[in-house]
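Q: Got a minute? One more chain.
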Amino acid sequence: MVKKIKILLEVFGKVALGVMFAAAIYISIFVGTKAQISSGILWQILIVAAVCSIPALLYPMDSEKELSKKGMLLLNLFYFAFVNVAVLGLGNLFEWLSFKNPRMIVVMELLIIAVYALVNVVCYLKDRATAQNMNEKLKEWKK
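A: Always. Here it is, folded:
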């Protein structure tokens, strides 16, 4: 349970940072760089990041059964769909966007894709570094 919470917090941090950058880009495009925004947007960003981090708990941990490639692909597709629904739904609720404005939806979707991809790349690189470190330790141990 502690490991799942640790992973959840790691993912939350990465997602929150990505959403913060996406919000800065989005606000710059639709409101301008001199926008006056309320502190409420900071709480909204944290809420979006928290909601979008929850599906990370679905990924198997060390002691759990590994997923097949097809299973992992389906899980990633579900996660991406979940993030889309969450961000667009919460974005509409928080009045970040209007479904009546296609340009807002397109920009938001591009930002969702960018943040999702960036978070996945960062997580992949971290996991790869961990695996390489473990392999080196195993080689040292075998000597």
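A: Residues 42 and 120 are 23 Å apart (CA to CA).
Q: Perfect, thanks.
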